[in-house]
Design brief:
Helix content is 41%, strand content 17%. The protein is built from eleven helices and twelve strands. It has helices spanning 12-30, 43-49, 55-60, 87-94, 157-172, 190-203, 215-224, 236-249, 287-304, 307-325, 340-352, and strands spanning 2-6, 35-38, 66-69, 99-105, 118-124, 141-145, 148-151, 177-182, 209-214, 231-234, 259-261, 266-269. The radius of gyration is 20 Å and the shape is globular. It binds adenosine-5'-triphosphate (ATP). Residues 10-11, 71, 73-75, 253-254, 272-278, 284-285, 288, 333 line the site of adenosine-5'-triphosphate.
Amino acid sequence: MRLHVLPADGIGPEITTAAIGVLEAADGRFGLGLAYEYDEVGLASLAKHGTTLIEDVFQKSRTLDGVILGTQSHMDYPHPSKGGRNISAAYRVGYDLFANVRPARTRAFLGKGAPGMDLVIMREATEGFYSDRNMHAGTGEFMPSPDMAMAVRKITAHASERIVRRAFTVAAKRRQKVTAAHKANCFHLSCGLFLREARKVAAEFPDVAYDEVIVDAMAALLVRQPEKYDVIVTTNLFADILSDLASELSGSLGLAGSTNESDLFCCAQAQHGSAPDIAGRNIANPTSMILSVAMLCDWLGTKHGRPEYSKAAAAMEQAVDRVLTDPRSRTLDLGGDMTCDAFGKAVAETVAAGN
Ligand code: ATP
């Protein structure tokens, strides 16, 4: 299979290199037969082509089997009309990758984070409050006057139904519990529509428990009793915020992998941002990217009926834990002094050695 690798900005290139090293080790052990196509996106592309994502690169991904997308420094991008195209949004909308799957779990041996947490946040990724993707034409954010700015939130039955259905499918293979986070006490119509669809889908899964929690309470409950939750499904912005909370509760923002996926296509992407404060110093934690790539492998294994890909994904995840167990092999965010590339190499060697 051929993967499109787009390292992007900030710590993106460092963590992507580390993750590809681990994937190559998994390929060697499980005979995945992977090939890689590299392309520049983000600030490097902006400097060369005047846009952070050229159309050729974006379309090329369609000819390949999956995408590995590094982190992007959106805050440094110019306005989209001047070439600052939001790459994540382009893929989520253009490839209809409606499910942003964001697992987070604590590892007792780290001695950090919220004890007993093991959950997945299912984030709807194509609409909501995101003005760059919630309109057919134009943008969902506008200024009627210099001192007034407005943003429109879009919630559809279609997008709500499919993310909730995917959440139930994920929960059915885990601890069989779905929690819908919402703010229907204020957003009666939009969160109300989301809940209407969630309840319809829930009725089709009698073996999976279902409850609803108001999103602000959800934030507090995640801190207080994270172990109670299995799969949390919610709209785009709420999930973005809750998932950063959950990954920090797991011990570090650098620990949680994620994919953007549909039934047809999948893009691995670390949960965190481009961390400009530590970029280029070889101190980032590449775990999130390694685990994102493992999730992509698992998705490919399921889609193409290739169990060796799912075995490779499990081996990569186990190897990360094995390496993290030793306090000497942790990056700065976890209180260690291991470099990003040394951590990647240690995980790759562990995968190659058969864990
Ligand atoms: P962006 O504008 O790209 O979102 P940001 O710095 O605002 O960047 P994050 O990149 O998510 O947001 O980073 C938030 C904090 O977490 C920063 O202090 C960053 O250094 C740290 N951080 C994020 N990812 C990692 C990582 N993989 N390893 C270590 N620290 C990280």
